[in-house]
Amino acid sequence: MKFGRLTVLRLQEIRKRHSYWVCECECGEQVIARQGGLASGRKKSCGCYRIDKMTTHGMNKTRVYRIWSYMRQRCYNPKNIGYKYYGGKGIRVCKRWDYSFENFFADMGHPPTDAHTLDRIDSNGDYEPGNCKWSTRQEQACNRGNNRHITYEGRTLTIGEWAKVVGVNRWTLWRRFKKGLSPKEILFGKCNLLVGNLGSETLDTV
After folding, report:
1. What is the domain range of residue 124?
2. Could you tell me which residues come within 8 angstroms of residue 70 by beta carbon, excluding any fewer than 6 positions away?
């Protein structure tokens, strides 16, 4: 089991009704920790975590630092509101980033704009270099596993993307999708004129 930066290796002893465990820290050091301290979160490293927190990199109040912190919270803090979608599903932060904000910043830099947030390219993969990029919320929505895709004339897009292409409200397309209509009927309605390719004039009557 893992608690913060500590991985439990073995039971050391039980003394005065308290269990003491040999743990290995991510930095490589081994330490003996009492079970109560591990379970409560008071003991989360060999001491390097406290030292890291005292390190002055001058970015504690920046947005990119908050993004890094929230990323770790979602993956490792069961009390975090987003934990069930991340840590609860086995999503982790690679050791390079989990151990050091400086490493994360060196790899990712600042978000291009305030509208950009941290996004995983493979939504089932971990937070690590090569699987993360800065994306707008709209771009992230298109990457979610619960998005529905429609293929028409060899082109596959999400419902939201098709809504922009055909000029129809996405909730209208979603209702048609839920009815089990064909891709052509979803995009152009059951009654339409001259529906051939996407450049044809169409009349939506649904």
Report:
1. 57-141
2. none
Q: Model's pTM, two decimal places? A: 0.47
Residues 80, 15 within the same domain: no
Q: What is the pLDDT of residues 103-156, one digit of tens each?
A: 999 999 999 998 899 988 777 789 999 889 998 876 666 555 456 778 888 888
Reference 86, options 126, 142, 51, 53; nearest CA is 126
Are residue 120 and residue 170 in the same domain, yes or no? no
Where is the domain boundary, 92, 109, 141? 141
**Would you state the structure tokens that stand for residue 185, as one six-digit string?**
């009927």
91, 82 contact by CB (below 8 A): no
- Taking the C-alpha atoms of residue 92 and residue 75, their distance in angstroms, rounded to an integer, is 6
Neighbouring-strand partners of residue 120: 132
- Domain total in the chain: 3
Identify the domain boundary among 89, 117, 141.
141
70 and 137 housed in the same domain: yes
